[in-house]
Design goal:
The protein has 684 residues and is an alpha/beta fold.
Length: 684
């Protein structure tokens, strides 16, 4: 039975029966059900409870819990427990531990201290996953499986001896010969040439951390490959046993991991862990920034690029906290707001973290729905109200987030920018700027991963931004050409196509592979120093403040310079070039898309406020739209007020308020944190 079945949007909760007296389980499960929670996730950190000593398996504890769950009608997501190996295991087999780059092993006492490549850990993983799958796959209460917990969270770099050996194997497979490896890594520079495979290692400490960047790029690819293969090892076993309809998933999006590939190879869909109040938690005190939680809409757009309909395995329901972190409890309405934020972006299942706040250990301040006493509280009452709202949104289940604007990304560039500040500074500015501009102009947008994209996949978008595709391949260039050739509008930012797939700078005239498509030639470029601040360029009467980087562009062929820099030593050089290609057009902008610049592009290209004829909203309110297959003719408008202040909205036509069933039109006020969902039918 699949949780994400397009029929209803349901609630779950993370539960830790091992934290509470058995006598309280039944009461807990019944109270959950009474609040509309239909599914619990269990066992992701419970290896020691199952394999008490090496090779001795005992399922009594979870047998009792699962039969209780079955008897009260609670569904269960059962987890593989591999995120936390038992103490007996790491003590006996220290080779399973991840280490620092210096080779110092991470010891018992936290979590995620193992490595993906140790043959022993893989063997012990296989055994426990096989045992649990064989034992519980047929259990009527079980509806799905979570693999591990948050792969690559907390640490996403691996340096154990097993990793070093596996890295060599990965590279041998990729390059075949040392000659090819030397070429790809540019090892002629600083005498780094390898003459024997044994010399090739994971990046170890060097006098500064300015290690060969091509090697680092392959190291990140290798880590992703290791995590994907580890997930597949588990998924292959679960697939052999699970009931038809039961799902396999894992939770979270973390660094150095191609989550698209992992999902394609091993999961039915991805689940995300959404903690919007994380933005408050820096140091001992919290910062009050009432709109930072909107940033999670950006993360949810990433999740959506993997699975259009997904689940939230951990949705924040209490204060974030640790021994080093203190933050506020969600204010009245915020749990609803964050839940609806997830649903607006495509979640059809939302599970809260966690039922009751644990009294001990590292996370005793990381609050759940209930506080330590377990007594009923305001947050539990809010969960009950959310359930009632979601029941009314059953027809939203299975519909998709709808966007006509896309922002392209790809893992090569994401990983390259970790080792390359000439890209990272630009990416950070543009990803944030585009997000803000789209938010403030109520322009829904998707992320599309170019490395997981087919030729026709972009055709549904009117405007596509590819901010800083520093690394570009011919295959990806073909996808871009196809999109523009068929009538699309593609916007590039500075430093496009500067590098090849290994991260080596190309000697072609810039912008390398896209110079024909963009109709651009870039003889010179520069970073913009802080004392220069920003450099002005004017586009058809509108001032663009270019910051951080300036490509100085001339137009090629029939292309046209639309804006030139009007200050500094390159005054008069092109800042924006427009080209026609096939039925479409390109814009090459020589700088980054700060929020102001991105907004100018959205407005000039006619992409801003696509629902402006239906609803008028202040910038504080996010608009998201879900519709059948992303169809334009009808759907559901989600209005999310992220500010604590009331906000005026104006409905320009009569629409059904899905929470109340009433028809509404005209002016309304959304209270602080209030959400509404309207059914929308387009006028043809
Ligand atoms: C997640 C994790 C949970 C819990 C939670 C709160 O990253 O999956 O186990 O640690 O954060 O910190």
């Amino acid at each position: 039975m699949n949780l994400i079945d397009g029929k209803r949007i349901t609630l779950g909760v993370c539960y830790y029966p091992e934290h509470w007296p058995e006598s309280e389980w039944e009461g807990d499960l019944k109270r959950m059900l009474a609040s509309g929670i239909e599914t619990v996730r269990v066992a992701e950190f419970a290896w020691s409870l199952i394999e008490t000593e090496e090779g001795v398996f005992n399922y009594d504890f979870f047998d009792r819990f699962l039969s209780l769950a079955e008897s009260v009608g609670m569904k269960v997501i059962f987890c593989t427990p591999t995120a936390t190996p038992p103490a007996w295991l790491t003590e006996k087999y220290p080779e399973v531990l991840n280490t620092t780059a210096e080779g110092v092993p991470f010891r018992h006492g936290f979590r995620r201290h193992y490595n993906y490549n140790s043959p022993k850990y893989r063997e012990l993983t296989e055994r426990i996953v096989e045992k649990s799958a064989a034992h519980y796959a047929g259990h009527p209460a079980v509806v799905g499986w979570q693999i591990d917990n948050e792969l690559n969270c907390e640490i996403a770099e691996f340096y154990s001896e097993s990793d070093a050996a596996a890295f060599r194997t990965f590279l041998k497979k990729k390059y075949g010969t040392l000659e090819e490896l030397n070429k790809a890594w540019g090892t002629i520079f600083w005498n780094q040439t390898y003459t024997d495979w044994q010399e090739v290692d994971v990046p170890r400490p060097t006098p500064t951390n300015r290690v060969n960047p091509h090697r680092k790029l392959d190291f990140y690819r290798f880590i992703s490959d290791s995590a994907c293969s580890y997930a597949k090892l588990q998924s292959d076993i679960l697939c052999k046993y699970k009931k038809p309809g039961d799902f396999i998933t894992t939770n979270g999006l973390f660094g150095n991991l191609d989550s698209h590939r992992m999902t394609e190879e091993s999961l039915d869909f991805i689940m995300y862990d959404s903690y919007p109040n994380f933005s408050y938690c820096h140091g001992l005190y919290f910062r009050e920034d009432p709109t930072k939680d909107r940033n999670w809409s950006k993360h949810l757009s990433e999740v959506r690029s993997i699975s259009k309909n997904f689940g939230i395995m951990e949705q924040q329901s209490g204060a974030n906290g640790s021994m080093e972190m203190m933050a506020p409890v969600p204010k009245p309405g915020q749990i609803t707001l964050w839940t609806m934020q997830s649903v607006a972006h495509g979640a059809d299942f939302v599970s809260y973290f966690r039922w009751r706040t644990v009294t001990k250990g590292t996370e005793m301040y990381w609050h759940g729905i209930l506080d330590y006493s377990g007594r009923d509280n305001r947050r539990l009452a809010e969960v009950g109200q959310i359930h009632e709202k979601l029941e009314k949104l059953a027809c939203v289940a299975g519909t998709e987030y709808r966007a006509r604007v896309a922002v392209l990304r790809d893992y090569d560039n994401i990983w390259n920018d970790q080792a390359d500040v000439w890209q990272r500074n630009l990416d950070e500015a543009s990803i944030w700027g585009l997000f803000q501009a789209c938010q403030h102009t109520h322009t829904p947008y998707d992320y599309v991963y170019l490395d997981h994209c087919g030729e026709g996949d972009l055709s549904r978008y009117d405007v596509v931004f590819y901010p800083h595709g520093v690394i570009l391949t011919e295959e990806r260039e073909e996808i871009l050409k196809h999109y523009v050739g068929q009538g699309g509008t593609l916007v590039f930012g500075c430093r496009t196509a500067v590098k090849d797939i290994h991260g080596i700078c190309v000697t072609d005239r810039l912008p390398g592979l896209v110079r024909d498509l963009a109709g651009a030639d870039i003889p010179e470029y520069t970073a913009v120093s802080p004392e220069d601040g920003s450099v002005k360029a004017v586009w058809d009467g509108t001032e663009l403040r270019t910051t951080l980087f300036n490509d100085q562009i001339t137009a090629r062929g029939d292309a046209e310079v639309l804006a030139s820099y009007s200050e500094g030593y390159y005054k008069g050089a092109g800042a924006l070039v427009h080209n026609r290609y096939g039925h479409g057009e390109t814009y090459y902008y020589g700088s980054v898309f700060t929020a102001d610049v991105a907004q100018i592009f959205l407005e000039k290209l006619g992409a801003a406020e696509p629902f402006g004829e239906v609803v008028e909203l202040p910038a504080e309110v996010e608009l998201a739209v879900r519709s059948e297959g992303g169809d334009a003719r009808g759907g559901f408008l989600f209005l999310l007020n992220f500010s604590r202040e009331p906000q005026a909205i104006f409905l320009k036509r009569e629409m059904e308020n899905m929470y109340t069933g009433g028809m509404e039109a005209g002016e309304y006020t959304l209270a602080g944190y209030e959400t509404r969902v309207y059914k929308y039918i387009a006028i043809e």
